[in-house]
Specification:
By secondary structure, this protein is mainly alpha-helical. It is built from seven helices and no strands. Helix 1 runs antiparallel to helix 2, helix 3 packs antiparallel against helix 4 and helix 6 packs antiparallel against helix 7. The longest helix has 21 residues. It starts with 7 loop residues before the first helix and ends with a helix. The model has no long low-confidence stretch (mean pLDDT 90).
């Protein structure tokens, strides 16, 4: 088992981007199931370690210390899982600000006519995360703008 494949932010991102695409929905649900199975395996009653769904810094330090102390591969995976969730939730604290800034930047680029292919992907994510009529229209306009420039 590699710790690189266990990433909570990738699972949540896949779930956010999946609506409207059956193939992506299946892939996201598979990722979610694999992640949940890994968590259940690593934090079972047999392991004697309880899972912390929303860890704080003390939890991260505690799991890291145990992993360093025991050097057990399962403790290392547990420490990775806890750190990964901590980093995800720390990032979520400012996600709404990042989201507003992205929307503003995309609208400015559209008005200036300087949209790129990378902006299409960013606009798609922006519209999927917050699917208001304005955000969906922004994505459509950016997509058309890039298509007409090609």
């Amino acid at each position: 088992m590699t710790t690189q494949s266990i990433n909570y932010s990738a699972v949540t991102e896949a779930l956010k981007m999946a609506p409207g695409n059956p193939q992506k929905i299946v892939q996201a649900k598979r990722m979610e199931r694999e992640y949940n199975e890994t968590v259940a395996l690593m934090f079972s009653e047999e392991s004697g370690v309880s899972f912390v769904p929303v860890p704080d810094e003390k939890d991260v330090e505690r799991f890291d210390a145990r992993a360093k102390e025991t050097n057990d591969p399962e403790d290392i995976v547990r420490a990775h899982l806890i750190r990964d969730r901590f980093e995800y939730y720390e990032g979520e604290k400012t996600a709404h600000i990042d989201h507003r800034v992205l929307g503003s930047q995309l609208r400015t680029k559209l008005a200036e006519g300087t949209v790129t292919k990378a902006d299409v992907k960013a606009a798609e994510q922006y519209a999927k995360i917050n699917p208001t009529p304005d955000n969906i229209a922004l994505f459509t306009k950016i997509k058309r703008g890039v298509s007409s420039n090609e």
